Amino acid sequence: MPVIPSSNQPIAEPTSHPAPNSASRPVCLFIPSFGDGGVERMMVNIARGIADQGVPVDFVVGRRDAPFLDSLPATVSLHALGRVPPRERQRFLAEYVERSRPAVVLSAKTEDDRIALAVKAASSTDTRYFLRPGTTMSERWRARGKNWLKRWWEQRELRRLFQRADGVVAVSEGVAADIASVTGIPPSRVRVVRNPNITPEFYAQAREPLNHPWFGTDQPPVIMGVGGLRTQKDFATLIKAFALLHARLPCRLMILGQGRQQGRLLRLARDLGIADDVSLPGFEPNPYRFLARAKLFALSSLWEGSPNVLTEALALGTPVVSTDCRSGPREITRDGAFGALVPVGDVEALAAAMEETLRNPPPPDLLKEAVQEYRMDISARRYLAAFGLIAES
Fold it and tell me: Where in the sequence does UniProt note compositional bias of the Polar residues kind (predicted)?
């Protein structure tokens, strides 16, 4: 195997897999643009779930020390490319496909999709290439104020990409409908598989100790927000809604996550006179121990695909309130039956829904039952069925 230059570490030698039939050939999850968000965490869980089903898995990333990778089992072969340009990523993938003959290559970000499908176009193997869209592109364009020319260009690129893929697996019905509309591919070519949020260790992580004064006895209820501090999550609306609620009910707000908006959000809390009861402690590797002890989880997003933390809060029996953004919250809460839905950006409606839920919380067992489809083992089997590697169950 040729050596690809890296600025930080050598590429791990890949494991050679035999290629007799598709059931024993590896599934390759290709995400060299690996970061620290929900897409990355779900790709790790997909790898874990598929490996647990006895299928070989190769996992291609940029950095070996990236978040979440430490949860990959030894049965998953990890390939860390280092900081290399896209052309070197493409060369690695092309040589890997020729050598290991994976049954499937799954990518989950547009920049990685381009590389994977360029390899597909030049390859003579029978490897099949699947894309995994995780958000509603039309809503993201609208919320970010894309002008018509940029939107036309991006839509044109997406059409070219998705029409060349062998299959598409969307994280929600809303994302599936949006991708079909944006790209022009037949809706029948898009499969929906729920995110593998609920892992075998999920509840044990939620029970881990939490030594934080806000969660002591006789403390005001804590409302949780979780996510990157960026435009999509619209935490400014959550903080403003919290300020209205705070004036009527003793409570606190904690938002776990990091991003360039942290300073602006803290200034907003100070300007509203609620800084002492608002905390933005940064990234937390185990948010579940916070969610399990919170009295309410609030999602204020402008758009989503399938918001993982909303599913996870319900799985822990924590009451939820969410904006009715596209897409995910309406599907996850079953049209609001398992959590109040409010219009996007509506500060007063969000404050009122949070107050009502805090005063009249639903039974935890009812909330937990709503999200059983999001178990890792169920999701993994549905991915393998979507890939055509096992029969539908």
Answer: 1-10
